[in-house]
Amino acid sequence: MSAAVIVGVAAINRYVTLRIFTPPAEPAPQLTQAASMYWQERFPLQVASYMRTLEMEATEHGGSVPYQKLTKYPFMRAMYHGFGFWFDFRES
User: Fold this and answer.
1) 14 part of a folded domain
2) Which residues pair with 90 in a beta bridge?
3) With b meaning 16 or more CB within 10 Å and e meaning fewer, what string describes 50-80?
4) DSSP state, 26?
5) Domain annotation covers residue 17
6) Does 3 map to a domain?
7) Structure pTM?
8) 84 within some domain
9) Distance separating alpha carbons of residues 36 and 89, to the nearest angstrom
10) For residues 57 and 39, what is the distance between their CA atoms, to the nearest angstrom?
11) What's the domain range around 87?
12) Which of 49, 67, 90, 92 has the fewest C-beta atoms under 10 angstroms from its C-beta?
């Protein structure tokens, strides 16, 4: 009896899972120039903030430019001697 219940629950679970997680029939629409302008007109601050993520510059908190930490902190070479990254330790 309990084996039949377990098999039944597993079958129902599989059926529900396959119905819920079916892939969409059509692909997601691609953004066009008109759609980009729509967002830029209605949400200028958010678009400006997003566009700033494309800039590569160093800031007081590290910024977005990867740099060689061993050049900035030479004591790390001795601290991490023997590890695989002791000679090349870059911030990503």
Assistant:
1) no
2) 68
3) eeeeeeeeeeeeeeeeeeebbeeeeeeeeee
4) S
5) no
6) no
7) 0.36
8) yes
9) 39
10) 26
11) 64-92
12) 92
